[in-house]
Amino acid sequence: STPFVSDRETGYDALPAPLFDTTGTVAFVPxxxxxxxxxxxxxxxxxxxxxxxxxxxxxxxxxxxxxDGPGSLRLYISNPGVTLRVRLESESGTVDEAxxxxxxxxxxxxxxxxxRKGLRICLNGQEVFKDTxxxxxxxxxxxxSGNTHNxxxxxxxxxxxxxxxxxxxxxxxVFIDRQLSHREVEELLYNKxxxxxxxxxxxxxxxx
Length: 208
Known about the structure:
Elements: E1 27-29, E2 40-48, E3 57-62, E4 73-78, E5 83-90, E6 93-101, E7 107-114, E8 119-123, E9 126-131, E10 151-153, E11 156-157, E12 162-163, E13 168-176, H1 182-190, H2 200-207
Antiparallel strand pairs: 1-10, 2-7, 2-13, 3-4, 3-10, 4-5, 5-6, 7-8, 8-9, 11-12
């Protein structure tokens, strides 16, 4: 059975969230052509456990080790300062941006929107980074055939082994096939009438 984060519910359904820990718990989704997005948005909620925080911890990854992998994406936490970072690569360059410190033992929401309108990142509905010159995403525009890596939550695969486990949780993972504006992200996050929600059955599908 899937363990859950004790007393750490989130999302609009207020149901328990799956727990990741050092035992190597990972949610894994095989690559699909629908994820080859030249323009798109990736969003999720994440939570980091204060009692078990250490060094690098992976939130979400579609990545392997090495620079300039076309369309490679990794969302992760690093020290010092419990800093949220986003890494997105293309054949022409790499963004590996330290965004801001996040509070442990609290749920946060991150949205990364990418493509021809540039790279924008929102944390808890607020825009925290913008790079209008970085105009590629996960698809072929980033180089070669685009990002054909598998999607993982809670760990990332460096080509040989899984690394940087998350002590906490991830849920409500959403891929959208267009670039959302800051206002659209805010609307999805805070307007309950239009809010998105992933049912626990979807998590069972991901981890099976």
